[in-house]
Amino acid sequence: MSSEIKTLEPSAVWSRFADLNAVPRASKKEEKVIAFMLDFGKKLGLETLKDETGNVIIRKPATPGMENRKMVVLQSHLDMVHQKNADTDFDFDTRGIEMYAEGDWVRARGTTLGADNGLGVAAIMAILESTDIPHPAIEALFTVDEETGMTGAQGLKAGLLKGEILLNLDTEEDDEIGIGCAGGVDVTAQRTYKEEPVPEGTIAFRIKVKGLQGGHSGMDIHKGLGNANKIMNRLLFDGFENYGLRIASVDGGGLRNAIPRESSAVVVIDKVHKDAFVFEFGEQERDIKRELHTTEPSLEITAKPIELPAKVMELGVQEGIIKALYGAHNGVYRMSADMIGLTETSNNIARVEIKDGNIKISCLTRSSVDSSKTDLANALRAVFELAGCEVEFSGSYPGWQPDLDSPVLKVLREKYEALFEEKPNVAACHAGLECGILGQNYPKMDMISFGPTIRGAHSPDERASVTSVKKFWKFLKEVLKDIPEKE
C-alpha cells in the first residue's frame, strides 16, 4: 500500500510520508519516530540533535546564492492522533498506518491517517534531502507531543533556535495563511461513588451510540456535529427520569482533542417498565437522528438486552452526575466579534468514564481570548463541583496573537496571489498551534502557518487531498526562494 502512495506526485513528499507512516508515533510514545528522524538527519550528513524534551532539530546550510537570506525554521510535529473504528482490529504500537488512494484523496483503512501533521513533516524532509531546491539556511524543528499537551513546544528552551522566521506547516486548508490560533486548557472532573447491588426484578441493557463523524475538537467544533457523550447522557437522563434507570458503567469518547464518536453504557431498569422503556427509547432515537440527520447521517443508537451486571451506581451520585453532564456546555461558547466566522471560545466534552466506583470526565476548553477561556473553564468547574466532583485545570497553553504587519505574511500573500491568481484567506484558527507557545521563548520570531487540505483530522475519516499537496509543495518551494535578506 505504501508503494502505491509513493507513486503520487509530488513523489518527494508522498514517499517521505509513506516512510514516516510506517513508524508508530502516538503522542507520548514517540521514541521510534524520534530515532527515525535522528537517523534521517545523520544519514544526510546534516547537523542533527535532540533536546531534553525529545524535539529533533536538523540544520541545513543555505544553497549557493541564498546565504544572505534570513534563516528559516521549518516546523511540524511528529506525533499523530491514534483513533480507529470500533470494528477495526489495529495495534498502533506495532503497526504502520495502512494507506490507500481513492480519487483525489489519500485515506487510511479504519484508522486516522496521520496527515496531521505528517504531511508537514514529510515536506520538511523533502526539503532537507533536496539538491535542486533553492533555500536559505534552514532549521528543521520536529516537535513531540503536540496532540496531547504540546509539551514538546513548551519544553523547547530559549536560545536553542537561531532562525528569525518560522514557517509552521500545520494548517489544514490550502488557501489559508494562518496568523493566530486559540489557546486551551484541560478541565478534568473526578469523584468516587459507592457501588450498590443490582435491585431485584430488573433487566439490563447495553446502550450504544456510534457512527458519528467525530473530528477535530477545535477546527470542527462549529459544524454542529454530534457528541457521543452528550447524546448518551441525554438517553440516560430520559431513562432515569421516566423509568428509574440505574447505571452500571459508561465508556464514551477518547482523546481530548477529538469530538467523541462513540459511547457505550450498561444500565438496568425494572422489568415492569421494559416495554415502555423500549418504546420511549425508540422515540428518543428517532428524535435525535432527525435533529442530526444532516450532519450525522450514519448515526446509530441501540439498546440491546444483556446479562445483569454485578453492581450499579449509588442513586444520589448518579442523579447528580447525569444532571451535571446535561448542564455542562459543549460546543461553541462564543464567536469572535473581531474576526468574522472565527470561533472564539468552545468546549469539547471529550471523555466520560464511569466504572468500578470512579467517575472521570475530561474536557478541552479552547479560546483565542485567555479571559474567555477562564470564564468557560470556571463555568464547567462550577457545574461539576455541584455534583460533588473535584475539578482540575491542567495543560494550559497560550493562544497566538495575530500580527497583520508581519514581513513574512507580506511575502506569502504576494507569492500566493502571483502563483494562484487569487487572494489567500488570511485567518486565525480555533485549533491549538504550537506558534503561541514557541513565541513565549522566541518573541521576536516572525511566524506564519500554512499547509495542504486535510479533512476529518483526529478521526478515522481523516483524508488528504492529492492535488492540494501538489499545490502546497509548489507554494512552499516558491516561498523559500523569496525569504527576505538579513538586516
From TrEMBL:
One of its GO terms (cellular component) is cytosol. It holds the Pfam family M20_dimer. It comes from Sinomicrobium pectinilyticum. The keyword Chloroplast does not apply. InterPro entries: Peptidase_M20, Peptidase_M20_dimer, Peptidase_M20C. CDD domains: M20_pepD (cd03890). This is Cytosol non-specific dipeptidase. One of its GO terms (molecular function) is metallodipeptidase activity. Belongs to the peptidase M20C family.
